[in-house]
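Quick check before the chapter quiz. The format below is the same one you will see on the exam, so make sure you can read both the input and the output lines.
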Amino acid sequence: MVTGDEKEEPFGLDKDQCWVTAENQELKAKDAHDSQTFGPILIADIGELFFFSTSESYISNL
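Here is the expected output.
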C-alpha cells in the first residue's frame, strides 16, 4: 500500500489480511479509528453486524 505521505514507507498485506478505513469524512485522520490506527486486520476476524434504528412510534405499530 502506498500513502500520500512521503514519510511513510509503502507496505504490502498478507493474503489473509485487509485494511479498513473510516468513512466519516468529518473526522480528521488522527481521530478515525481504522487501520491507520491499529494496522491491518485478519479477514478471519471480520464478522457480521447489523444495526437497525427506528422511531419508537414505528415499533409500537408492529
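If your answer matched, good. The helical segments are 35-38, 56-60.
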